[in-house]
Amino acid sequence: MSGGAIAMALFGSIVFYGGLAYCIYRAMRKSNPPTEE
Amino acid sequence: MEKWQSRFAFLMAAIGSAVGLGNIWRFPYVAYKNGGGAFLIPYFVALFTVGIPLLIAEYSVGSMFRKSAPMAMRSIHPKAEWVGWWGVFSAFLISIYYSVLIAWCLCYLFHSFGLVWQPDASNFFYNQFLRAGNSLSLGGSMNMQIVFALLAVWTSIYLILYKGVKSIGRAAIITVPLPAILLLILTIRGVTLPGASMGLDFYLSPDFSKLSMPSVWLAAYAQIFFSLSLAQGIMIVYASFLKKGSDINNNAFITALADGGAAFLAGFAVFSILGYLSYQTGQPMSEIAGGGIGLTFITYPTGISKMPVLASFFGVIFFTTLLSFGINSAFSMVEAISEGIKDKFGMNKKKTTFIVCLLGFLLGLLFIPGSGIHWIEIMDHFISNFALVFVGLLECLIFGYALGGEKIRNYANKVSEIKMGRWSSIMLKLFAPVVLISIALASLVEVMVKGYGNYPSWSIAVAGGIVLMSVIMAILFARLKCREEQ
Q: Is the minimum CB–CB distance between B439 and chain A shorter than 8 Å?
């Protein structure tokens, strides 16, 4: 695979799956709010 | 009032509706034709400027009014009801031929056990399986296998829908993660085959010069709009079953990113196999790369049959993936219309779903004889590029001006984990309508100048007539008295 193709594969993966992971994290944080000491 | 059993069930149903056959056979090819990896840039811009704001608006309207699309539109403005009906009728028209495609996948799932399409997948598909000819006449012999498969598809849709939203959630919890896992297995197998890297180069090598072409940007906006199940009343009805105070914005982000992520992953599964096929046969990639029906039922099965080990197993996995993604989208389209009828006329859910499914099955039979494949292509082009785009445009105007872009934004922000800025209502009111008008105009100019494929003008007139008939039906339904008035 060319460097350009690898770079675009990484770029797409970061936005799609990184973005999805972040949104799921936000959703889970709301359903399990951190307890205050 | 029915409710989703959990947020997860809602998300799975919404993602299942958005992720369909198009994610596998449309996105990778559109990306390849429009700059490869560089296409991701207009795709993400389109996702954040039109896809997500429109999805948020549909979720908000469903959650705000707790009604199906036509009745929610009526609540916004009595004269807007027909737009809701036009959307759900368009979804129903799509479900008629979409279920035929799913029936083909079901048949091919069984054919995978013996790889019966060998040695010539194209000859098998057109001559033995479809019995297709060049004529557009609706007569001709039917392959009874497809008839029974179609019956099985509509029976499954009925069984999933008739008990209501909880059974939709239960079905989606299985039928969404399962094909995602299978797609991952196909991708891993694909990228480990010789020649895969050549295929992936074709898919992802960026050609940034294409970003200066307006057609590439339009293709990205069209891909986003068609992929997210917008303007069909589906997302409105699904959101109407959300519990009060449920998140809107983050759910829209999750749905849109999961839809795009599935399409992006599908590109790896498809192009790695195409690369392998090119490596095995010596055919250049530019001749092999394709999309749509040809990719699914000819090129990909050919690639699968050339796999060194477990070819049948991967055939079964591929068609199970398509079948599961397809059935989720199909039942969401049927749910949009059956909930609309139930809401308006106060009919029993089981009875409404049964009538809609029976009608869908009977009309689907028209697409089974040899000419069916041509009619599917023609109908899909006209319903997507004209009916859905116009419904989307009218929706933006109704949501943005009659209801108020700011009202939608404030409503969604109040209940959501992620807050949207003022830009999202500007996108809904100004930018999305301009984009949708551009898509419709580009399609109109293309049809007027070039026609559509090699199809005769009378077939285009028939498709246009069906779209027009759906508008007339929508206006008639909107004029009928609803349950409260009777």
A: no
